[in-house]
Structure formats: C-alpha cells, structure tokens
Specification:
CATH superfamily: Metal-dependent hydrolases
CATH class: Alpha Beta
Strand order of the largest sheet: 1-2-3-4-5
Protein name: Adenosine deaminase
Largest sheet: 5 strands, parallel
GO molecular function, one term: hydrolase activity
Keywords: Hydrolase, Metal-binding, Zinc
CATH architecture: Alpha-Beta Barrel
Family: Belongs to the metallo-dependent hydrolases superfamily. Adenosine and AMP deaminases family.
Shape: globular
Radius of gyration: 19 Å
Order of helices and strands: HEHHHHEHHEHEHEEHEHEHHEHHH
Enzyme class: hydrolase
Structural class: alpha/beta
C-alpha cells in the first residue's frame, strides 16, 4: 500500500490478525484495480484504464470533486447483474482477507438502475454474493443504501423506493445513507426520504461534515435523525457538537486516509481523530474507498494507532468500538467482541 504508515512489524501483524467490523466502506469504491481493470475490459467504451498499474495514477485526486468524477467513471463499468455479483463477492473476499467478520457495505442502487440494470436483478445479484460470502468466506455483509447527493431529489425518491418496496428490498438491508458532495447539497431537503426509510425500519447513517462545516453534521442529526455520522471530520470545530456526540453516543465513521486523499484534511498529523477521542466521542475506523486511496482497513488501524499512540489493547478497543456501533444484533456483537478479547489475550500472553 503506497499510503502505508510506519508501524512496528509486531503491531502490523497484530492488526492483520485482529477480528474486525467495518461500517463505512463503499461497494464500488472497494473494487480492486484487478476487478476494475477486468470490468473496464468488458466495457471499453467507459474509458477507464484496463491496466491495473495505470489505475494507480487514475486514482490520484486533485480534490473531492475530482474524486467524485473518477468514482462515477468506475460506476459506469458496472453494467450487468453479473458485474454486480462479481464486484460484491470480490469485495467480500478482500474484507475476509483482513479478518473482517462483519461489514455494512454502502451501496448506491440508483447509480446502477439509472444505467439500465433491472432493480430486481440488481438485488438478486448482491444477495447471491452476500449469501455466498457468508457461507464460503465467513464474512457477514449487510447493506446501507445511500442517496447520491449530486443526483438530486430524483435519486432520493428512487433510492427510498428501492429500500422500502417489499418486492425489492433485499434481506441484508439495514440502513439508509446519503453520500456524494456536501457543498451545494443541503441535508434538510432529504428529510422526507429519511423519514420514510426510518418508518420502514432502516437506520440513518448519512455522510456529513466531510467537506463542509459542523453545521452539516447538526443538520444530519436534526433533520435526518442520524444514528451514526459518516466522516464528521469538521465536528472538531464545534465543542458543543463534540459534547453532544459524546453524550448521545453517536459514533463517527472515521476514514483517515480518505480524508487526506480527497483533500478534506491537509495531512494525517492534522487529522482531528485525536480531538474526537479526547472529547469522548465513539470513534470507529474505516477505509471508505480503499483501493482508490491506496489503503485498506488494516492500514487504517495502523494510521489510527500512530495518531493515537495505541498499543495492542488500544487497537483492540477501537475494533470493539466498530462492533458496538454496528447494527448487528446483540448476540452477534458479543460473539465478535469476545473473539477480539480472546485474540488479544492470546497475542499478549507470555
């Protein structure tokens, strides 16, 4: 990984074997260069590089807007249910490699249905991959359907329809989100769609405060009834907001390398994760769009360990934060947290 941070071999080995959960990782954004190249070769008119090495340069971003542009070009190489199934299973394979026991994968179905993939076929493809991954890889996947904010209210209507129509809603769906650009995309306008999703039993997990100020986080909490905040980077600028997040135990889905790659934060040493922890906010560690940012979840834990000066027990506590903040049932949470404790105790045993 080109964005890997220094860490002792022992600490990296501990992280590599540590059971984990991941809560903020995007479906398309998790496509490895190998898979993107394979999909691009199937659809050469998409103008995405078919050479995995060339994709490294392609995935170098000047700012958040450029990232969105490149991201959408990758979306354009996913055109058939077979493409969707391949991508989903390969993402699960990569998560399993990193000892991820449970992941809530953010999926943007509107991006696929608007490109002509039948909605039912799309749902069948992700569900088939989910069930196969759990059986064959041991990784449990759940879905967050998110609105692509740049596509406007049309996308919000279609996303909530797909998420709440009993004929289409996939078994693995647990939450409803909002992604894409924040600038020029005010959160309050999405309130009716989140209200419908919440009424249908879905949990609210919008992105907020990634590229805009803390007011966007307040809007996500007030209008969208957010139970977790995607990124929330600018929350550190508002002490009252930090106190609220801590008091209400509203977790932040922190993605350090992503924030640097999209220029949301200037450099890792300026990342506000330390302020979050100091304020008592429940912090979870995530990879966001890992291949696009030349990272993976293991590396993000190494980043966090350096920034927070953590030893093995501290890293294990971070891993348990993600489990606790997940929408897994209590028995499932207990099982993974117990596995983390057992692994850590065995690692540290003399």
């Amino acid at each position: 990984m080109s964005n890997a941070v220094p860490a002792s071999p022992d600490l990296r080995a501990f992280i590599a074997g540590l059971p984990k959960a991941e809560l903020h990782v995007h479906h398309v954004g998790s496509a490895s260069p190998r898979i993107v190249a394979e999909l691009a070769a199937r659809h050469p008119d998409a103008k995405v590089p078919t050479d995995p090495e060339a994709l490294a340069d392609y995935f170098t971003f000047t700012d958040f807007a450029h990232f969105v542009e490149v991201y959408l070009s990758v979306v354009d190489v996913i055109r058939t249910p077979e493409d969707v199934r391949l991508l989903t299973y390969e993402v699960a394979r990569e998560l399993a490699r990193q000892q991820v026991r449970y992941a809530e994968l953010t999926i943007t179905p509107f991006s696929s249905t608007r490109r002509g993939i039948d909605a039912k076929a799309f749902m069948d493809a992700i569900e088939d991959a989910r069930k196969a991954a759990e059986k064959e890889l041991g990784t449990v996947l759940r879905w967050c359907f998110d609105i692509p904010g740049e596509a406007g209210l049309e996308s919000a209507e279609e996303t909530v329809r797909l998420a709440t129509d009993d004929r289409l809603r996939p078994e693995g769906l647990v939450s409803f989100g909002l992604g894409g650009p924040e600038i020029g995309v005010p959160r309050p306008q999405f309130k009716p769609y989140f209200d419908r999703a919440i009424a249908a039993g879905l949990r609210s997990v919008p992105h907020a405060g990634e590229t805009t100020g803390p007011g966007t986080v307040w809007d996500a909490l007030t209008y969208l009834r957010a139970e977790r905040i995607g990124h929330g980077t600018s929350s550190a600028q508002d002490e009252k907001l930090l106190a609220h997040l801590a008091a209400e135990r509203i977790p932040l889905e922190v993605c350090p390398t992503s924030n640097i790659a999209t220029r949301a934060v200037a450099n890792l040493d300026e990342h506000p994760i330390k302020e979050f922890v100091r304020a008592g906010v429940l912090v979870t560690i995530n990879s966001d769009d890992p291949p696009m940012f030349s990272t993976d979840l293991n590396n993000e834990y190494a980043v966090a360990a350096r920034l927070l000066d953590l030893d093995e027990r501290g890293i294990a506590d971070l891993a348990k934060n993600a489990v606790e903040a997940s929408f897994l049932d209590e028995a499932g949470k207990t099982r993974i947290k117990d596995e983390i404790d057992t692994y850590t105790a065995e690692w540290l045993a003399p």
